[in-house]
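User: Hey, quick favor. My workstation is busy. Could you predict this chain's structure for me?
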Amino acid sequence: MVSGFDIWGHDAGLRRHWKNRALAFIVDAIISFVPVSIVLYLLEITDILEVGIIVSTIFYLASSIPESLTGSTPGKHIFHLRVHGIDDGAIAGRVYIRNLSRLFWFVLPPLDFTLGMATRGDPRQRMLDRVAGTKVVHREEKEKHAFHMEALAKKDEATEEDDEKPEPTISEDVCQECGGKLILLADEKLQCEKCGLIQ
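Assistant: No problem, here it is.
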């Protein structure tokens, strides 16, 4: 099984994707934590547990509500990222699942990232992205993602007519690195089955 960690060193696109997501997370955290901390200080709320619960809840809601309405948080908007449903379905309810790690922002995001990278699947998804059926896509890839979703919808319609189960889409192209078969991912990127490189 090829994991995201196996391809991290030779896939600049994957590193750039996670760098942008980490920076977006930091921006969102600053936007949430600073004003809330000032208000709590002015209200003289100093109990660590109480402050932690309030700040974490605000961070979770400040991330989930904008994502459910627009697909982006302020941080994601700055770095041209957007949340999409893998099956192009509505994401409004899904973002509340994918953002659960923000309730425990001090420990869960690194664990969520590590589990997503260490297991089989798209290395650009955190584990909670997989559970929620979501994917973070760069704005430049949005058109490719939309095109792929339309192609999947047409394939599903044809499959329903034929009463056959859809099979994973595999490109006839071969990997530039190792010659393995390429699997088409949700945003028109290709991933090698053998070495895991995203092309």
